[in-house]
Amino acid sequence: MSTAATVVTVLAALWVGFSAFSLLRRAEWVVKPLMDYGVPRSWWTWLGAAKAAGSAGLLVGLFVPVIGVLAGIGLVLYFAGAVVTVLRARSYSTVVYPLLYMGPVIAALVLGYIA
Question: Is the pTM of this model over 0.85?
Answer without folding.
Answer: yes
